[in-house]
Specification:
This protein has about 325 residues and is α+β, with helices and mostly antiparallel strands. The protein has two domains: about 180 residues, Fructose-1,6-Bisphosphatase, Chain A, domain 1 (2-Layer Sandwich), CATH 3.30.540; about 130 residues, D-Maltodextrin-Binding Protein, domain 2. It is about 30% helix and about 25% strand. The strands form three sheets. An eight-stranded mixed beta sheet has the order 4-3-5-6-7-8-9-10, with helices on both faces. Strands 11, 12, 13, 14, 15, 16 and 17 form a seven-stranded mixed beta sheet that branches. The chain has a two-stranded antiparallel sheet with strand order 1-2.
Length: about 325
């Protein structure tokens, strides 16, 4: 059952729900606030259609702009670069101290603060040009490399923010009311509980089905038998948000090779799901596509190792526990 209460702002909710004894509470809240605020202009740019395609049309650019690539040798589009810069600038302007900031779009930045930050500025950015849902994914790590907070902003028909911290998951809605006496801000909507169905829900499975292993193919057949509806959209954060509402599974099998980023995508979203009683299994690496890694077996992400391991990719499945556990029974 979801619990709705008064609409309070994100800052007030954080101060109320993070206990005073939480290590470096004030600094943690400052990091969350500043990145959350940075998602508001990102939402505005996306809403107004400021895409690379639009810019090319408006500026009458005939020749292709020089291509740039991220750490994964994937072509960067305008939205990736722009949103990455917006978030970093927000942290810089407010003087936020961090241990590291690692983003998909550039090499990690090191600092002398208490918390490390991972950012996927626009997850599903290839969906922007076709007007599909995209989002920003953030993970925050303590000095021991343990994830202590994760949240995402989802830019759709409306903009919302889902945050997991201190054993709870809450949803906030971006208040864009013209009657507001302040600038746009996130207000509390409800505490979330994720369904854990034995049948039904949704399945969002990516990768090349022709290349899936026998185990992965058998697993999909089982999900179809259990009446999980196919809802894969190409946006991890968009699909996961639907799973939080309806129950089910998001999966990206490492076939023909692993693709999704462990620390930028899988781990923050898995932290949210695990907080809600769900489960996450990392599947495959560069040597073994069937290798299974449980969440507590994943290396901590710290300042001393972030440059070496932040770019790790893998397959995986995440979602409702009953549905995830079925994978372990397949052959």
């Amino acid at each position: 059952m979801n619990n709705k209460t008064e609409n309070i702002k994100l800052t007030k909710w954080l101060d109320k729900n993070i206990p005073a004894y939480f290590p470096n509470k004030g600094i943690l809240i400052e990091i969350i606030e500043n990145i959350a605020e940075a998602t508001i202009p990102i939402r505005g740019l996306l809403e107004r259609g400021i895409t690379s395609r639009e810019i090319s049309q408006r500026m009458n650019i005939q020749d292709p702009i020089e291509k740039t690539f991220n750490l994964y040798e994937e072509e960067q589009i305008h939205e990736d670069i722009l949103t990455h810069g917006i978030i970093l600038q927000a942290l810089k302007e407010k003087g936020v101290k961090y241990s590291f900031v690692a983003s998909e779009e550039a090499a990690p930045l090191l600092g002398d603060g208490s918390f490390g930050i991972t950012i996927d500025p626009v997850d599903g950015s290839s969906n922007v040009a076709v007007n599909r849902t995209v989002g920003t994914i953030v993970g925050i790590y303590n000095e021991q490399g343990e994830i202590v907070c994760a949240f995402y902003a989802l830019y759709g028909i409306f903009t919302n923010l889902i945050i997991a911290i201190n054993g709870m998951v809450a949803e906030f809605i971006l208040d864009t009311s013209p009657y507001s006496m302040t600038f746009y801000h996130y207000v509390f909507q409800e505490n979330i509980q994720m369904p854990n169905p034995e049948k039904g829900g949704i399945r969002c499975l990516g990768g090349d089905p022709m290349m899936w292993t026998t185990k992965c193919k058998n697993y999909e057949k089982k999900l179809i038998e259990l009446k999980l509806k196919d809802r894969y959209s190409g946006s991890f954060v968009g699909d996961l948000h639907a799973i939080l509402k309806f129950g089910g599974i998001y999966g990206y099998f490492p076939c023909p090779k692993p693709k999704l980023r462990l620390y930028f995508e899988w781990f923050p979203l898995a932290f949210i799901v695990k907080t809600l009683g769900g489960n996450f299994i990392a599947i495959g690496d560069d040597k073994d596509v069937d290798k299974i890694i449980l969440m507590d077996e994943i290396k901590p992400l710290q300042k001393k190792n972030v440059k070496e391991i932040h770019a790790v990719v893998c397959g995986g499945i995440v979602g409702s526990k009953n549905i995830i556990d079925l994978f372990l029974t397949q052959k």
